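Dear colleague,

Thank you for sharing your sequence with our group. We've completed the structure prediction you requested, and as agreed, I am returning the results in plain text so they can be pasted directly into your records. Please verify that the sequence below matches your submission; if there's any discrepancy, let me know and we will rerun it promptly.
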Amino acid sequence: MLAERDVTHITTNRGAQIFRIPLNGLEDFWVFAYLVVVEDMLVLIDTGTNYHTSNQDLIKGLTSAGELLGRPLGFADLTHIFITHGHIDHYAGLAFVAPQTRALIGVHEYDYPIIVNYHERKERVVRRLAHFLVEAGVKPARIPEILNMYMITKGLFESCRIDFTFGEVGMRVGPFEFFHVPGHSAGAVAIRLHDVIFVGDHVLSDITPHQAPESFTLNTGLTHYLESLRSFAAWAGSPSIVLGGHNAPITDLGTRISEIIQEHFTRLENILDMISEQPRTTLEISKTLFGQVAGYNILLALEEAGAHVEYLYRLGFISIENIEEVRSSSEPVRLLYRSLRNKEELGNVFKKH
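Please find the predicted structure tokens below.
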């Protein structure tokens, strides 16, 4: 396993140089950026959080890479910056890096608005999140607290230039090939360079990448994510190494994808079990799935549970018990879910979705 706190050096089967740079993004929350030297290109993949020591760690990473290459490196030397997906721990560092470079910055078109029209996008998501929290069964007095937690990191960024989208350039830049994997974010991409694949947060070695309901953002949610996992597996083949945005590299991609799919299937089965006994809210489902959590993890657990509830509802496995209450109110109300179909039927449907 590669060291988690040191810059590490990887060489592709065609001689490209990759430097894996750990960034301490949110007080012991680590994210990885990658500096790639190939042909006449110097490419930075992801930029960290623009918070804590993330920016300083990025500078140190470029310095370390330059020492290994025998020449000084700085942001001014970059030719390109690729953003794997539109989550703040991967793109917020653009606020620090972009003013210091003429590098061309690229992102998938579905995540383009998040970066170039940041504040408008943020306000729309906050409204949808507030609606979701009511329907999830969160007590009204607690909703402002959870919304404030969501907003904690949102002041780390201002709208930033994007020079091209991956679709505009035919999903290829020089030797880099891009593959759209919506789910974790709408515009998430995997990037292939020779025998190495960069996956952002699409596949992680130790945890299942976080899912939120598609009701927040089109082209996210569990349905899209599972479809992307399966199509990505076919596209990726058998790379030598898979480099993610967090945690350790992956050397057996097929096995890891199978494990992630199975974990989601088990979670769906557990939800059907618990609501077959009595109707439950998303909040109650979240507590049963993930136990007692604190801080920002409260929101993450609610979103994760909500993504699975949404998946089951979309496929007709559950329904809303208190639909009459929904009909009679002009405002969102908490939703109680009950099962319509049993988990024995889920396996056949799950394989097709």
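Summary note from our side: The two ends are 33 Å apart (CA to CA).

Kind regards,
the structure core
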